[in-house]
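Before a colleague's protein record goes any further, I have to sign it off. Thanks in advance; the entry in question is below:
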Amino acid sequence: MLTLAQTTFSSRLFTGTGKFANPQLMARTIAASGSELVTLAMKRLDLRSASDATLAQLQALPVTLLPNTSGARTADEAVYAARLSRELLETRWVKLEIHPDQRYLLPDPIETLRAAEKLVAEGFIVLPYCSADPVLCKRLEEAGCAAVMPLGAPIGSNRGLLTRDFISMIVEQASVPVVVDAGIGKPSDAAAAMELGVDAVLINSAIAASANPVAMAEAFASAVQAGRQAYEAGLGVSSQQAQASSPLTAFLEPL
């Protein structure tokens, strides 16, 4: 079980809602994943419609909605989007995303910290998408964020855990949950992240853009469970040299 901002989740797989062929497929996929925390971009909602199709599907599921500020380029834009989501969706949860660089969509660390401080002061439950920077993650935690969400690789790249060593440092020093967000392309990547001791992973593109999103969601759910179980069981110590699992020569001693 994972407790995040006094809310308990039985699944450590969080999911996104972009890139699905239609809202119905998105809903079936999320249900198959077992995910209980689902993020959606405020910029994707049809604010002129009384009933947005994506939002209607999500509100019918037993999930906690995590609106995100994707598209914001500055702290001020992110704070505006968060306030809008609180008004429209009646939630204090927000995934803070600020990425002015449109080529790599890398998060702006200075604007992210500035926005986090402001949103926490306003009572938001802030989960910031950020670089895998141990110093920055500690600063975000000290600012009052409910979790930190370091990237594994650039958004949608499916390149896996390029930041593995830094994520290990973040896990080692964190006092809030660590959720790896962005870049995870395969269920084996998710399992590897969980084996490092992160508390959860957030997957979108690797599931939504697969040939069979429902089956891929199930595969990710299994991988996350396996990775967490391995971490809790305790992984063996790695070594550059061979380590015999039984005596090599004892049976020859009587000869």
User: Anything to note?
Assistant: The two ends are 56 Å apart (CA to CA). The mean pLDDT is 92. Residues 213-233 form the longest helix (21 residues). The longest strand covers residues 125-130.
